[in-house]
Design brief:
The strands form 2 sheets. Strands 3-4-5-6-7-8-9-12-13-14 form a 10-stranded antiparallel barrel. A two-stranded antiparallel sheet has the order 1-2. It is elongated, with a radius of gyration of 22 Å. The two termini are 35 Å apart. It is mainly beta and 275 residues long. A hairpin with a 2-residue loop joins β8 and β9.
Length: 275
């Protein structure tokens, strides 16, 4: 949070600041326009571990299939970028006896503003800031007769950061190694109470603490990724790992979904940055 506050102060008072190791080499450039528009489209697949005690006390394991898009563009403040990320996930998981499945779907929309600066002789591009995330989804248990499904809806404030290191190669396009992370800090989410049915909520209108304020203590979660961008056949491609660990404990109910994804896709990078 201190990093985010410091970045916002710098954005409000964009005076040139430089840190130098000697009189000729600049290692940190705070006020230089370093952000370029870029977009990525990725497909992800990997193992998932799912638990929702409203539906079952049993953990289910299966596969998470995911489609991810991200766009990053400059704002009128040249050292601040805006990032729009969308994720569409489909999970198919089974219990230990393999006689029941849980099928889930989720859509997440994230918007963030991040301050940008360069370091390590312009090879390292750093971003820090935050924004908000909204998600809606469902989880369906094939074995349940009563209350077979669980609805998911939440809005969170979400700090985020990224670091991208450029590897220059003679007579070749550069490589970009990127790490990105975000976590929910506070927000609200929908949840039935322990033992409460959806019939009571929606047909009888019996509200029982179903809109729950959340903090990092009740929803300790993290989404991070490590990816590599490379140029091949005249196009930019991205490959890497995404770890998405979602947890919640509200209304005496526990939920988690841990996903480890191999992601591959295409990237669109600004030509000026890649010369």
């Amino acid at each position: 949070m201190l990093t985010t506050l410091y970045a916002l102060l710098l954005a409000a008072f964009p005076t040139p600041l430089h840190a130098q190791t000697d009189s000729t080499q600049t290692t940190i450039c705070w006020a230089e326009p370093v952000v370029v528009p870029q977009k990525t489209w990725m497909l992800g697949v990997g193992p998932a571990n799912v638990l929702d005690t409203y539906l079952s006390a049993e953990k289910h394991r299966g596969t998470d299939f995911r489609f991810i898009t991200q766009s990053e563009t400059t704002t009128r403040w040249f050292h601040v970028s805006q990032i729009l990320t969308q994720q569409l996930s489909l999970v198919d998981a089974h219990n230990r006896a393999d006689n029941g499945n849980e099928i889930g779907g989720n859509y997440r929309l994230q918007y963030a503003l991040r301050y940008n600066w360069l370091a390590a002789h312009r090879r390292l591009h750093l971003e820090a800031g935050g924004g908000a995330e909204a998600n809606v989804g469902f989880l369906y248990n094939t074995r349940n007769g009563n209350n077979p499904a669980q609805a998911q809806a939440a809005i969170h404030l979400m700090p985020s950061a990224a670091a991208e290191y450029t590897f220059y190669r003679k007579s070749h396009s550069p490589l970009y190694l990127r790490y990105e992370a975000a976590f929910p800090l506070a927000g609200i989410m929908f949840s039935p109470n322990y033992g409460q049915s959806y019939y009571e909520i929606f047909n009888r209108g019996n509200y029982d603490h179903n809109i729950v304020p959340t903090t990092i203590a009740s929803t300790p979660s993290l989404c991070h990724s490590l990816t590599l961008d490379f140029r091949l056949w005249g196009r930019w491609f991205r490959v890497g790992y995404m770890g998405d660990y979602r947890q919640a404990k509200v209304n005496s109910l526990k939920y988690h979904c841990y996903s480890h994804l191999l992601v591959v896709g295409m990237a669109k990078r600004d030509s000026k940055k890649n010369k």
